[in-house]
Amino acid sequence: MPNIHLASYRLRNTDWAIQDREVTLSVSLLNKGNTEAHGITTRLLPLKNTTKVKQGSINSAVLAVSEIQELENTFVFSVESEEDISVAQFKLVTTDQAGNEWVDFFEIPIRAALPEIENFEIADGRQLMVASAGDETKKLPF
Fold first, then answer.
1. Which of 53, 94, 97, 139 gives a 20 to 30 Å CA spacing to 62?
2. How do beta strands 37-46 and 136-141 pair?
3. Cα gap 87→105, rounded to integer Å
4. What tens digit of pLDDT does each residue of 71-126 get?
């Protein structure tokens, strides 16, 4: 019987999941069982109502024994809230054509959407050494 679980995940369109922005999530599955799994469907379900999943279901064909496979398609979600949210919690439900079901829970850290800092200056008048190339340094005002 297959035994499918979440092996890993990664964010595709950003280094950090940021509140109020769409995040593309790639998932890899591992078959820890002793037979292949066929007709796999994987669904991403949010555990809080502040998380919205826009692309939440992916189908794949076969997952061999002891194989880790990154799903071809990606999930898309966003965290939308007036309050600062530090983590998004998910339930990943995987089923196969034989009717078996596996459930994994995981969390993704969320950063608040902060405005970009523009036009700043260090006002102490110091000059710092900065490497320009190889072992050459230049004294630049900061």
1. 53
2. unpaired
3. 13
4. 999 999 999 998 889 999 999 999 999 999 999 999 999 999 888 777 666 667 66
Tokens of residue 45, six digits: 């379900």
CATH top-level class for 4-141?
mainly beta
Degrees, nearest 5: CA angle 6-60-18:
50
Counting Cα atoms < 13 Å in the Cβ hemisphere of 139 gives 3
> Whole-model pTM?
0.80
What is the pLDDT of the chain when averaged over all its residues?
A: 90
Length of the chain as a residue count: 142
Residue at token pair 């050459």: 136
Output the CA–CA distances (angstroms, integers) from residue 80 to 43, 77, 84, 105, 125, in the order listed: 20, 10, 9, 20, 42
What residue segments make up the domains of the chain, in order of their start? 4-141
The upper half-sphere exposure of residue 60, i.e. CA atoms within 13 Å in the direction of its Cβ, equals 22
